Automatic annotation (TrEMBL), chains A, B:
InterPro entries: CueR, DNA-bd_dom_put_sf, MerR-type_HTH_dom, MerR_fam, Tscrpt_reg_MerR_DNA-bd. This is Cu(I)-responsive transcriptional regulator. One of its GO terms (molecular function) is DNA-binding transcription factor activity. It holds the Pfam family MerR. CDD domains: HTH_CueR.
DNA sequence: CATTGACCTTCCAGCCGGTGGAACCCCTAT
DNA sequence: ATAGGGGTTCCACCGGCTGGAAGGTCAATG
């Protein structure tokens, strides 16, 4: 299977697949003409990676997850540990964004949005002492 | 004022301040010895930038906000527009993360996290057809 | 058999918003 | 004179790709 077919089947762009090979996440064979020659297992791995990435796992986590996936001696505790750490990072990010959102929404709400120059948003940015 | 003092007063690392000069957000004078020589207005601008960045505005937005801030002929509508766009992007990001979080939390919950290899997390990544 | 066009290859550059480090200059205190 | 704590420039790197140039390969045409 050539990279185009694999891209279609895995849902990942060809560029990304080449990149994943470059950083050692997959290692497809090569045909005599130099083209990458993908096996079903590669497609499977790539789909796995696509789903892990879609859940927000970083490349390093993906590497670990893939390794655990292929390791019969793994424990589910190892996998869970990675996922829990990631969950914490997501929660932290959500909390951060939620705080931003609250401040921003308050400012947007306070701003008339008309032709006049007076603007609570700029006022807040220019001098944020007193409130968060 | 030298960059170190400005860093302390604005809360931004000296590296970042140099970077902001490089990309044209600020333009401090230079002393005879080549050192950057910051005025109060520069410190003010940097603090403004720091707060805008803390609200998640991108550098381009910061540039626009700074420009509007210094423009007496601005309208609050222009400022509000930038903020509303940004608010939408934040909401989209929160929604994305919240969805990730939901899936991930479900998987983590379903995983025993013990010494055995069976793991719903890996199972889901390996074959995610049927559920989101 | 030559050409077209879709595919594949490699390599280099860029995105965002900095951050780290090397190599060097400047200023003050001892 | 020297030590140290500033400052300066420049270049490389982070994540995770993405775009594009330059060129090789292949199947189907005229």
């Amino acid at each position: 299977m050539n990279i185009g077919d694999v891209a279609e089947r895995s849902g990942l762009p060809a560029k990304t697949i080449r990149y994943y090979e470059e950083i050692g996440l997959i290692a497809p064979r090569r045909a005599a003409n130099g083209y990458r020659s993908f096996a079903e297992a590669d497609v499977h791995k790539l789909a796995f990676l696509g789903r892990a990435r879609a859940l927000g796992f970083g490349i390093d986590d993906c590497r670990s997850l893939l390794q655990l996936y292929g390791d019969d001696g793994r424990t589910s505790a190892e996998v869970k540990h990675i996922a829990e750490d990631h969950l914490e990072r997501i929660d932290a990010k959500i909390a951060e964004l939620t705080e931003m959102r609250a401040t921003l929404a308050r400012l947007v709400h306070a701003c008339a949005g008309d032709h006049r120059p007076d603007c609570p948003i700029l006022a807040d940015l220019a001098r944020a002492e007193g409130r968060g």
